[in-house]
Every structure is written in structure tokens, then in C-alpha cells.
Design goal:
Oligomer: single chain
CATH class of the largest domain: Mainly Beta
Number of domains: 2
Strand content: over 45%
Number of helices: 6
Order of helices and strands: HHHHEHEEEEEEHEEEE
Structural class: alpha+beta
Strand order of the largest sheet: 1-4-5-6-7-9-10-11
Distance between the termini: 38 Å
Length: 290
């Protein structure tokens, strides 16, 4: 509120309290006195000074300039507010990458159907920790909501222990296995800023739906190849069907500047159907705002 508004309010309070008769119009000793006792409010409440006319030529121009400046400030303030509202409601794009460690579940079911072919009995397949990453592209509709498309790819290795081949008369072989999983997701993103500014530290949660596919590569043991009269060094690739998959991510976004954000997140992915891989991951990444 301007000084004029404050002092006019004071005069109005005097009147409402019924003590305006005790307020006497005083002489004009300064520009501040002129603003109070020569204002429209002073005239309305019968508090106008008798010296207003004498000081009009001295202070009127200064008062007019002050009022114009106040109007300009008010206009600029309203304009800034409108711009801030438009900026806050403007759709903004973002893109980024993440890298991390992925912890998949076991894949025993992948060997269903191979027992007759290889004579496999009770294979023990524990997938080791894998590593991979994601790329994503999205839009932020306001400070609390966005959505993106994401592609993920991870891979790792493991060993099949206690892999018994009937054709080898019960011999035990341990072989390396490589696995990979890719996924394509659409993710809404719900954002909770921790400060009242455009680019602040924020918490986000992002459920998603999409598709995924897993693949295993198993080298055929030389002993088995020789026993069956096939070429040594062959491998078998096992793939599951493309599966409908859901995931959920929870993370913390840390602004580096207005353009770049670093983030850390955890993720859980669960494909539907048989012969699939669900996994948990911890990741770190970088997002670019544009």
C-alpha cells in the first residue's frame, strides 16, 4: 500500500471513531503535509487545510508525478503477475538419461521345455546383478504434473549351476549365461516441489505401463555337443514373448541450473505372463529442460 493510501486510511479511522472534530487542519509545512491535508480524502472528511491553494503550485506537480509513478509500478506488477501465470501454465519439454544397477528375479521358468531336448534336470539359474540405463522424452504441463515416453535396456550374466545332462550320464556342467531385457513405457509423472519457486528440489512418483521382452543366451557345453555329434561352440537363445508390463518409480530431483536437473530414483518393474523377468533398480541420471 502507498503512503497516500496509508495516511488516507488513518484519516478514515479518525472519522469512524467519531473524533474527527478533534483533528484540526494544520498548516502546510512539508510535501507530506500537503499530501495529507490537501487530498480528496481530506476534503471529503472536512479536514482540508486552508493553505492548500497557496502550496498547489509548489507541490501539485510533484504529487502528480508520484501518482503516475505509482500507477506505472502497479501496471508493471500486474503485468509481471500475468507473465508469471502464463509461464507457470506453459507446457515445457524435458529429456534425459539414467544409469543404474538392476536386480532381477530368478529365471527358472525359462528352461521349461528344454529338459527333453537337453536332458536338463532341475537347473538352478540365479541371475546376477545387471547394469543398464534408460532414455526418455516428455512434457511438463505444470509444476505438479508431466508425462514421458521411456526406453530401457539392461543386461548381465550368470551361471547355471548343477546343470545335469542325462546324455552325459549325469555329468555336471557349469556354463555362463548372458541375459538382456528391454522395455518401452509411457509414464505419467506427479511432482511435489519442496520450495515455492520455478526450479526447486522436488520429489516425484511416476507409475507407468508398457511392454518388455527378455532374452537369454546359453552356450552349449562342448561335452554335450560332442556327445550329440553337433558343432562345438554353438549357443541357444531363449526369448520370452513381448509382455504387458507395469512399473513404478520414486525419486528426488535436484536442480543444477534452470536448464539441467540431476536426479536419483528407485524403480520396480513387473511384466505379466510366464517366462518373464521382474526387477528392482537404483539409478541416477540427468534431465534437460527446454
Amino acid at each position: 500500500m502507498s503512503k497516500i493510501g496509508i495516511k488516507s486510511t488513518v484519516l478514515a479511522v479518525f472519522l469512524l471513531l467519531g473524533i474527527s472534530d478533534t483533528v484540526k487542519a494544520k498548516s502546510i509545512d512539508s510535501y507530506e503535509d500537503y499530501k495529507i491535508y490537501c487530498s480528496p480524502q481530506a476534503y471529503h472528511y472536512n479536514l482540508e487545510s486552508s493553505e492548500c491553494t497557496n502550496y498547489k503550485n509548489i507541490y501539485e506537480q510533484e504529487l502528480r508525478e508520484e501518482l503516475n509513478q505509482q500507477q506505472e509500478l502497479n501496471y508493471d506488477e500486474r503485468n509481471n503477475r500475468r507473465q508469471n501465470v502464463r509461464q507457470a501454465n506453459k507446457i515445457k519439454g524435458y529429456a534425459g538419461i539414467s544409469l543404474g544397477a538392476f536386480f532381477p528375479d530368478d529365471l527358472d521358468d525359462f528352461f521349461t521345455g528344454l529338459e527333453d531336448f537337453l536332458g536338463v534336470e532341475d537347473p538352478n539359474l540365479d541371475l546376477d546383478t545387471g547394469f543398464g540405463g534408460t532414455i526418455f522424452l516428455g512434457a511438463k504441463f505444470n509444476k505438479n504434473f508431466g508425462a514421458d515416453i521411456e526406453f530401457s535396456l539392461l543386461g548381465g550374466g550368470t551361471e547355471i549351476e548343477n546343470l545335469e545332462f542325462n546324455l552325459l550320464e549325469g555329468g555336471t556342467v557349469t556354463e555362463d549365461v548372458n541375459y538382456s531385457v528391454w522395455g518401452l513405457f509411457i509414464n505419467p509423472r506427479f511432482i511435489l516441489p519442496l520450495a515455492d519457486r520455478d526450479n526447486s528440489v522436488s520429489i516425484f512418483i511416476s507409475p507407468g505401463i508398457g511392454i518388455s521382452k527378455a532374452k537369454l543366451n546359453l552356450d552349449i557345453p562342448d561335452e554335450l555337443a560332442e556327445e550329440n555329434g553337433v558343432e562345438e561352440g554353438l549357443s541357444i537363445s531363449l526369448e520370452d514373448d513381448i509382455s504387458f508390463t507395469w512399473q513404478i518409480k520414486l525419486g528426488l530431483s535436484l536442480p543444477i541450473n534452470n536448464k539441467y536437473n540431476g536426479f536419483a530414483q528407485v524403480r520396480y518393474v513387473n511384466p505379466t505372463g510366464e517366462n518373464t523377468v521382474d526387477f528392482f533398480s537404483t539409478e541416477a541420471g540427468l534431465a534437460i529442460n527446454f
